[in-house]
Amino acid sequence: MEPTLHFRLFFIEGSITILIAFISMGLLPNYPNSTMWLTAEQRHLAQVRVVEDIGEADVEYNHFARIFEGLILAIKDLKVYLFILLSVLEALGASFSNFFPTFTSTLGYSTTITLLIAAPPWVVPAITNLFDAWHADRTGERFFHLIIWWGVAIVGYIIAASTMATAPRYFSLYLMTIGYTGNAVTIVWAANTFPRPPSKRAVALALVTSISRAGSIIGSYIWKASWGPRYHQTMLITSCSYAFGIIVACSNGLLYCYEGYSNRTDLVLQVIRRLLICENKHMEQLEIDSMERAQLERIEKAAELEGTTFEEAVMRRKQFRYLY
Q1: 307: how many CB neighbours lie within 10 A of its CB?
Q2: Residue 294: what pLDDT?
Q3: Relative to the CA of 250, which of 39, 60, 232, 264 has its CA 20 to 30 Å away?
Q4: CB 47 within 8 A of CB 305
């Protein structure tokens, strides 16, 4: 393809994406109670399900001060930065997806056969994603539903770097794609971790999803033609990216701030897990008189939706815990 034509197609595709994004801003609802394409009964059910998950109702704030408050809360939360780091490493580790046909071509087949055999490996993560999502929802666990699949992907990278034999190298493609199963859990885990207030949740998710694309940008530079066909350097970088998401050590002071540890380092994911466990313990000390007015308002709304008393809604609110 001519370079000029390539850039033209790039701008055309990019312009279409931007156009759809602006259209979606007006079509996608912000809250269950503002979803116009649902019936009143369905909107009520959606709000009740939100209450069952976190013990508070979604209250829509349009005031700029509320939005700015969410921004301040997000940038002051250590967990936001941990999830950003986690997502960047995840995107870098999964950068093979952009060069999948290129890597598949190292098996030595024609272009047509290469494109055909590049499709089946993606059937596996489509199945494992469904199972992982179902099981994570049933158990309320996130940490192991993420790292197990990354571990499988690392094994795939090791096999691919170790041999040029057709059968094991093709098998490694299946293991690599399985890593995407874990990737699907990350943004869900982030959403579970920053549920309230809604403005903080919106900012936190925006920061995590947008900055994480830096991993994809870096990933576009690690599949050099000069490193092929074995791509040893690439396999090492992508393996380390997933591994760092699991085993990169954090400073001793990080956990000390939350649980009083003075002689411990921990894993990035494990740190997130420990922080959430610690915050769950902190929530048990929450009293009604210490709640902010915004919290009281959301709990009152939750009580109204569920048809319960304010005291019962407070007890349900206290039952909310982070998922780890």
Answers
A1: 8
A2: 61
A3: 232
A4: yes
